[in-house]
Amino acid sequence: MQSTSAPLLEVEDLRVRLRTPRGPAEVVNGLSYAVGRGETVAVVGESGSGKSVSVLALLGLLPVRVATVTGAARLDGEDLLTMPPERLREVRGPGVGMVFQDPMTSLNPVLTIGRQLVEGIRAHGEVSKAAARERAAGLLAEVGLPDPQRALDRYPHELSGGMRQRVVIAIALAHNPSLLIADEATTALDVTVQAQILDLVAGLQSEHGTGVVWITHDLGVVAGIADRVLVMYGGRCVEDGSVDDVLERPAHPYTRGLLGALPDLASSGDGELATVPGVPPAPTDLPAGCVFWPRCPVRSDPRCETEQPPLAVVGASTGGLPHRAATWCEEGSPR
Amino acid sequence: MTDLPQGPTAHARGVPASDVPASPVPASDVPVSGVLVSARGLEVHFPVRSGNALRRTTGLLRAVDGVDLDIHRGETLGLVGESGCGKSTLGNALLRLVEPTGGTVTFDGTDVTGLDRRGLRDLRRRAGMVFQDPFASLDPRRTVRQTVSEPLEVHGLRSGRQERSARVAELLELVGLDPAVADRYPHEFSGGQRQRVGIARALAGEPDFLVCDEAIASLDVSVQAQVLNLLRRLQRQLGLTLLFISHDLSAVRHVSDRIAVMYLGRVVEVGPAAAVGSDPKMPYTQALLSAVPVPHPALERTRQRVVLGGDVPSPANVPSGCRFRTRCPYVFEPCPDVDPALQPVGAPGQLAACHLHGVVGRPVEQEDAVPAPAD
Prior knowledge:
The complex is a heterodimer of chains A (335) and B (375). With 335 residues, chain A is an alpha/beta fold. Chain A has 2 domains: 9-95 and 178-264 and 271-325, P-loop containing nucleotide triphosphate hydrolases (Rossmann fold, 3-Layer(aba) Sandwich), CATH 3.40.50; 107-174, no CATH class. Chain A is 30% helix and 22% strand. Chain A has helices at 51-58, 85-91, 103-106, 113-123, 129-142, 148-151, 161-172, 191-208, 219-225, 243-248, 253-260; strands at 9-20, 23-35, 40-44, 67-75, 78-79, 96-99, 179-183, 211-216, 228-233, 236-242, 312-313, 324-325. Chain A has an 8-stranded mixed sheet, with helices on both faces. By secondary structure, chain B is α/β, with parallel strands linked by helices. In chain B, the strands form 3 sheets. An 8-stranded mixed sheet of chain B has the order 6-7-8-3-9-10-13-12, sandwiched between helices. Chain B has a 4-stranded antiparallel sheet with strand order 2-1-4-5. A two-stranded antiparallel ribbon of chain B has the order 11-14. Classes of the chains: A alpha/beta (335), B alpha/beta (375). The interface between A and B is large, with 49 and 46 residues. Chain B: GO terms for molecular function: ATP binding; ATP hydrolysis activity. Chain B: Belongs to the ABC transporter superfamily. Chain B: Pfam families: ABC_tran (PF00005), oligo_HPY (PF08352).
């Protein structure tokens, strides 16, 4: 699914620093990736790894007073980070659709579903109310909401979590965005509803060629939908590559630890789960050297504690994507 | 002992479970060490009130609707189901944290539903609970020592500050925390550490039975594994009986000896973890399992997924007959008319409530079709 032409989104050396009461926090430290048309890039990491902040920064959704964003993020060649606010408002919606984790907080509880959809549709382009309503009903049907005409007059609290998330996705897709960013979009949902939503997004993607950035901590979801995976830890990308490379042949000790910590559905748990000892570092207090070394089970290289390892190609890669990891550890125990 | 495969239909308040016709008792290879907790025809119905000023009761929300379940001494029973299926309410009802509206719960031979205050206090000591959110379930203004020693004071387990202090240190060590942290406040801890404090508190009364309600849901993946390992170690070490309630099927599969699956207030399948996890007999369990993504790309690409249509019906308006029939891909004639009972099917000790394995159950009565008005 890799496109030969220029990628849809190209993020280059993205850095985000936040001002916090505990001092400056380096939340994102030099993130680079590209998303092709029709391609799905999964950004994986635990809470505090900077995965959400990294996409909020792309769309200028971080408060300017506390956040300093540097680097470049080109959507169809146009840099989102240096764009004037008016132009950015035009891009959000038609260019980039966004779905957040909690559908209850991303919908306005006192407005009907219809009003929220119509508002989004009319914000970009001259459309009559009636036509926008028509389009809104069509969108709800497209995301598989039963009885869309009636749903338009309902309030968010009258819908189940899965239905609400579908409404949020409908809003995000209202203008056929070329890029969809989903931040833990199915985390709050049951697995059965999650399966419906993932099917839905895959369908829309193959139909419209939408590029997708899917932020999640669920490696199972990643295995199902991603073409390319980016593992974040302590605000850095510690490993990236094709989904097969990263999940089946993880090279970074952190990725290995993450995969080893997952209980396996196919086998009973007589053995202990492998754990990653300790907790992720606070972004205000990142360790020198490799960000993972204080928790790393295989650290042995003297450089671990002093020198930051570069993202370097490891082993053979599949699917035309380089498989890279930022670690001094040459080989660890296989997964 | 196995779960009695009796008619799981709604019991009126006070009707003994034995009045319901029972189907053949299945053979079982589950280690017979006795039943610690047992529910029969357990119901928790909440009145649904209309929004107007009169607050008239307009319906019944059947959160738990006729659950038959046995939890064996020393086992971990995993309880899974989608949100809203009543699994948390069931866990609460077993400990009488919510009042059952029908059926019985026995704990170590005693009927919990009839306990007075003193009896309840004893139950609270012998049965503990670990809650989902370690940020909400610890009092932010109390130190770890105060939180963990409260059960000791309430139950008069250790007299004197010194003894209690020693016991707190012992408990903290048991859950893998440094006893030196006893005088810190919850905000000084990470989520995983807080959950350990919650577990220490639950263990303070030296309980026989522990209900873990989504105890790992709010933790990061790598921390989840730490807490799962801790729970398993504690269970072996202390001989605990665990009810592990979770929507995470992989985690449940990992920790459980047996698994019970809930749908719309009813246990629809139960059995040894290996059988339910690998060869489920109830279409709902099959769909639920097939929806769980596994972290293997090649497997994920080729896997056949049973995608269920629609949403879970409201527990205030439960379908007649088999409650899963509105979403079931195999629905046939008896489904709307007969409420299926749990019957032995598949592996020894495995029970499923599904007509595909023979029509067993109670025919739908007229009054069941419409939710009965509350008294």
